[in-house]
Amino acid sequence: MSHTMSPARVCILRLSAVGDVCHALPVVRTLQAAWPGTCFTWIIGRLEAGLVGDIPGIEFIIFDKAKGLHAYRELRRTLRGRRFDLLLHMQMSLRASLASVFAVRAPVKLGFDRERAHDYQWLFTNRRISYQPRQHVMDSLFGFAQACGITERVLRWDIPIPAAAAAFAREHIPDTVPALVISPCANARFRNFRNWRAERYAAVADYAAQTLGMRVLLTSGPGAVEQDYGRAILAATRTPPLNLIGQTNLKQLLAVLQRAAALISPDSGPAHMATAVGTPVIGLYASTNPERAAPYFSRHWCVNRYPEAMREFNHQDAATAPWGTRVRDLRAMDLIRVEDVTQKLVELMAARAH
Question: Which CATH architecture has domain 9-147?
Answer without folding.
Answer: 3-Layer(aba) Sandwich (3.40)
